Amino acid sequence: LNTDVRNDVIKPPISIVALALITLAIGALGAILLTEAGQMLNLPRDWVFTYYRYRVEISLGLLIATIGILAHHFRHRASNNWLAGCFVAAMLACLFFINLFAPYVWLRAQHHTAEFISVAKADSLLEADEDVLVLEVNGDARAYPRDWIMVPHIAGDRIGGEEVVMTYCALSNLPQAFASQPGEQESEFKVVAQVNNNLIFSDTESGELYQQITGQGEFHGTRPQSYPVQRMPWHAFKELYPDGQVFHPQPNLLDWLTISLFNNSLVDHYRGDPLFPTLDMQDARLPAGEAVWGIRVGEQSLAIPQSHFGEADHLEHLTLDDRPLVIAWFAEHQTLGAFYADRDRQALAVTEVDPYGNSNAGKLERVQLFPGVLWMVWSH
Question: Is residue 337 classed as helix, strand or coil in its secondary structure?
Fold first, then answer.
C-alpha cells in the first residue's frame, strides 16, 4: 500500500482504482447501448442484445462492486468523500439508464393500461386528415392516432375477443400488431431501445426481446402471432368503423416534450437522412425517405410506393411465395387493402373487393402489411 498521508487521506491501492474504472466502463457501456447514444455511435446490434440479455447479472455485479469500493473508502479513507460521491452517483446513473429510463420513465408502454374513447369524442380532437393506424379483429376496430401512440410505442386491448397489442416505431414510421400473450404465461411488453432505426421491445415476464419489423424473438426464436394493420386518415376510419374505439393516452409534461423532440428531430429523417447512421443505404431504387406499403408472405417481400396507385381506385393481382394475392387501393379512403386471393390454396377469381375484404368471391383474409414504413428501413 502507498502510505503517503496528506490530510489524513490514504491513496487507494491500484487494485481498487482499477476495479472502479472497470466498473465505470461496464456501466457506461450499458447506459450507452441501451439508449439512443449507442446507435449514434453505430455500435453493433449484437452488443445491444447481448448486454440486454445479461443486464440483470451485470447490474448486480456493478452494484456489488460499487458497494465494495465504497466500503473500502470508508474503512481506509481512500481518496476523498467528494470523489467517492461522484463515483457512486455515476454508477447509480448508469444503473438507471440500463434498467429504468426507457421502459419506466421516458417511453412508458401501455400494454395493459391503454384507454380508449368513442369515435364521436375523438372526432372533436382529431383533424380529418390525421394519420391513424387501424387494427380490426373479428369486426371490432381500434384506431391509434400516430401522434398519440408515438410516445408509449405500445398499447394493448381486447379486440374482437382477442388480446392484441399495437406497436409503433416513429423512426421506421411502422405500425405492427401482435398477440398480447406470445406464450403460455402472462406477458408485459416494454420499450427497450432501437437498433437500425427500428423499435426493439421486451416481454419482461419471459425475458424475450423482439425487433418490431421482424417480429421474432432474439433469444428463444419465439414469434408471436401478428395481426394485419391498416393505415388511413381519420375521416376514413370514422366512416368505415363508426362503432370503433380510439386510443387516447394522457400525456404528462415529459411526454409533450418528447413529442416535440420527436417531431423536430424526425424532419430530416423522413426526408431520407437517417437520424442514426446504422442503415445500409446502398439500395437506391426508391428515395431513402419514401414511405412504402410493405408486404411479406413466407420468405418473399414486396415494397409498393404510393406513386404506384395514382388518384383512382386500383385493383391488382400478384403472387408472393406461391400465394395469389389481390391488392386494392381505395382512393376515397386513401388506404390500401391486401388480401389472400385463394381458399384452401385454390386461386379465386377476384374482380372486386371492398375495404373490409368482402369480394365477389366471398370474404378474403387480410395479408400482413407494413404500411408506411420508410424505404431505407425496409430495404435494410
Answer: strand
pLDDT of the residue at 280? 95
Determine how many CB atoms are found less than 10 A away from the CB of residue 106.
Answer: 15
Phi, psi at 51, each rounded to 5°: -65, -45
State how far the Cα of 223 lies from the Cα of 207, in Å rounded to an integer: 14
Q: What is the pLDDT of residues 116-128, one digit of tens each?
A: 999 999 999 999 9
pLDDT digits (tens, 9 = 90+) for 205-250: 999 999 999 999 999 988 999 999 999 999 999 999 999 999 999 9
Residue 119 contacts residue 246 (beta carbons within 8 Å): yes
The string of pLDDT tens digits covering residues 182-210 is 767 789 999 999 999 999 999 999 999 99
C-alpha span between 348 and 339 (Å, rounded) = 11
Q: Pairing relation of β-strands 245-247 and 140-145? A: parallel
- In SS3 terms, 229-263 reads as EEEEEHHHHHHHCCCCEEECCCCCHHHHHHHHHHH
Element (H, E) at 278: none
Helices (H) and strands (E) in the chain, counts: 10, 25
- The Cα–Cα gap between 247 and 125 comes to 12
Neighbours of 322 (CB within 10 A): 10
3-state secondary structure of 42: coil
Q: Are 268 and 374 in contact (CB under 8 A)?
A: no
- Round to whole Å and give the CA distance between 208 and 221: 9
Q: Please report the DSSP string for 216-233 in residue order.
A: EESSS---PPEE-EEEEE
What DSSP line would sit under 102-122, residue for residue? IIIIIS--BTTT--EEEHHHH
If you ran DSSP here, which 8-state letter would residue 285 be given? S
- pTM, 2 dp: 0.93
Distance between CA atoms of 195 and 32, rounded to whole angstroms? 12
* Angle made by CA atoms 265, 266, 270, in degrees to the nearest 5: 150
Strands 358-359 and 5-6: unpaired
For residue 140 the three cell numbers come to 371490432
Residue 9 pairs in a beta bridge with 6
